[in-house]
Design goal:
The radius of gyration is 22 Å and the shape is globular. A 5-stranded parallel sheet has the order 2-3-4-1-5. Helix 16 packs antiparallel against helix 19. The protein has 19 helices and 5 strands. Helix 9 links the parallel strand 3 and strand 4.
């Protein structure tokens, strides 16, 4: 069975992380000082936030890091609700059943109960534990207020790391409880060196320009670059990886709804575009950033006049900048397609 390279080559220590030098240096200094506060990691999807948290835990606890690090995904709690709760075996003991129909408490009540229990249990071999909450923007306002009180109550037994792509959706009292560190995508130079090391370790034969094609598609996203390289390797079936193969796996990987949305935006069909946005956000689980990235790729591949493509890419970039601080992705996407033509 082929291992996922994103996991196989994931950084195990802070010094192995690509890019984000300021945030990584800050974490290293906090480790050396022995005074780790609550933390808020924010930045785009796949920019290294979870990898940094895992590396921090390994350096902080050594071989016992798994005993002292707990991962929760807020979107699982509040987007999937009770269906998720009964699937996660950690929670059966707490909620007392594996039948969602027998869960009479609200999701937020269960969330508070679970976080209280994990935060209140002291570590057996460390001063405190780490609780990492991914996709913290999915927490409801009530859940965020409850979490703020829990963070204040259990400072002696645990530290929280909140990870989010949209810090503006976190209430100010919650944001102020942690040191905020920004993560972003890495430079092509650093990423190419990283891909060359993976290619050498896996014994890959890459034509001149094939890695540049991967970089063009990844746009600094480490996970996407590694996934693309592995897909190209599987597609090549032991032969040399070429630019053409990279192009085949990247184009095939784009959801067809993206192309439909581009067509609706260019033709000024706002009603159809709005329906497609809802389909991608709600049914397919795309993030707003992923939709913008897909639109930019589809636009470049459309073969339109360069001047027109450049003008529309600027609009997508402006929407991307607005989305970083926006509380509602749908509003930004709908505004973009209504002013696209």
């Amino acid at each position: 069975m082929q291992d996922l390279w994103t996991l196989k080559y994931r950084a195990a220590a802070l010094e192995e992380l690509l890019g984000n030098e300021h945030s990584v240096d800050t974490l290293s200094e906090l480790l050396q000082s022995g005074n780790l506060p609550h933390l808020v990691f924010h930045g785009p999807e796949n920019s290294g936030k979870t990898t940094a948290a895992l590396a921090l835990a390994r350096e902080l606890y050594g071989e016992t890091w798994k005993n002292n690090f707990t991962y929760f995904n807020a979107s699982d709690f509040f987007d999937q609700g009770k269906r998720y709760l009964v699937r996660d075996r950690r929670f059966v003991r707490i909620i007392g059943t594996d039948d969602p129909k027998k869960i009479y408490k609200s999701v937020i009540e269960i969330f508070k109960q679970i976080i209280n229990e994990y935060a209140g249990m002291a570590s057996l071999d460390a001063d405190y534990k780490l609780i990492y909450i991914d996709n913290a923007e999915s927490l409801s306002s009530d859940a965020q207020h409850a979490l703020r009180r829990i963070m204040e109550k259990y400072t002696s037994t645990c530290r929280f790391i909140l990870s989010t792509t949209r810090p503006s959706k976190l209430i100010p009292p919650l944001r102020s409880r942690g040191l905020q560190l920004f993560f972003t995508y890495v430079s092509d130079t650093s990423l190419k060196t990283y891909l060359e090391k993976i290619a050498e370790a896996e014994g890959l034969s890459c034509s001149e320009g094939s890695l540049d094609a991967v970089l063009y598609f990844a746009r600094g996203n480490v996970a996407r670059a590694v996934q693309t390289l592995q897909l190209a390797f599987l597609r090549a079936e032991g032969a040399e990886i070429t630019e053409e193969i990279v192009y085949e796996v990247t184009v095939k990987g784009r959801d067809e709804t993206i192309d439909e949305l581009l067509d609706a935006a260019l033709s000024g069909d706002f009603a159809r575009g709005r329906k497609l946005i809802d389909e991608m956000l709600i049914e397919k689980g795309f993030s707003g950033i992923e939709i913008l990235e897909g639109l930019s790729e589809a636009l470049v591949d459309s073969g339109g006049p360069d001047e027109n493509i450049a003008r529309l890419l600027v609009k997508i970039a402006e929407a991307d900048a607005c989305m970083v601080v926006a509380a509602n992705e749908r509003i930004q996407l709908e505004y973009l397609i209504s002013h696209f033509s």
